[in-house]
Amino acid sequence: MRGMLSFQILWLLSKRSMNGQQICNEIGLRRGKAPTPGTIYPALKELRKRGLVRMRRSGRETRYSLSERGKEELEKACRYFISAFGDILHEYWEVLDKNGRTLVLRRDSESRPDGRTPA
Predict the structure, then answer these.
(1) What is the pLDDT of residue 91?
(2) For the domain that residue 51 is a member of, what is the CATH number?
(3) What distances in angstroms separate CA 54 from CA 44, 93, 109, 116, one per listed residue?
(4) For labelling alongside 1, which of 77, 82, 101, 108 has CA 20 to 30 A away?
(5) Is 61 domain-assigned?
(6) Structural element, H or E, at residue 88
C-alpha cells in the first residue's frame, strides 16, 4: 500500500462504511484540513482497483467499505507503521508523561479546525 492517505482511508473504513464526503470530513478532523474530492476519489478508485475497498450504490449515495483483502493489507500496514514509527511515538508519549497531559490537550485543540478540545 502506498501513502498516508490510503492508510487513513483503510483505517476509517475498518471502523464503518462511509461515503466519500464522510471520509473527507473524518480525515479533515485528523489533519486539520480535509482533502479535496480531486484527491480522495482517485485514491478510492485505486483502492477499489486493488481490491482493498468495496463500493456500493444505493440511489444517489455511494458507500465504501473495507474488503477482506483490505483488512489484510491494513493489518500489514499497521505492523509496518509500528515498526517504522513505534520508537518515535514511544518517546513522544514519554515526554508528554513528564510534562503532563495539558500539553496533549493544548496540542489537540490547536490542531482541530474548530479549536475544541477533544473529549
Answers:
(1) 77
(2) 1.10.10.10
(3) 9, 36, 34, 34
(4) 108
(5) yes
(6) helix 68-99
Using CA atoms, how far apart are residues 70 and 11, in angstroms rounded to an integer?
10
The proportion of the chain whose per-residue pLDDT surpasses 70, expressed as a percent, equals 77
Give which of 14, 2, 22, 16 is closest to 77, Cα–Cα.
2
- State the residue range of the domain holding 44: 4-71
Q: Is residue 67 part of a domain?
A: yes
pTM for the full model? 0.72
CA distance 67 to 73: 10
Cα distances (Å, whole numbers) of residue 42 to 4, 63, 69, 116 = 14, 15, 19, 31
Q: Tens digit of pLDDT for each residue in 75-90? A: 999 998 888 887 887 7
Flag whether 21 is in a domain: yes
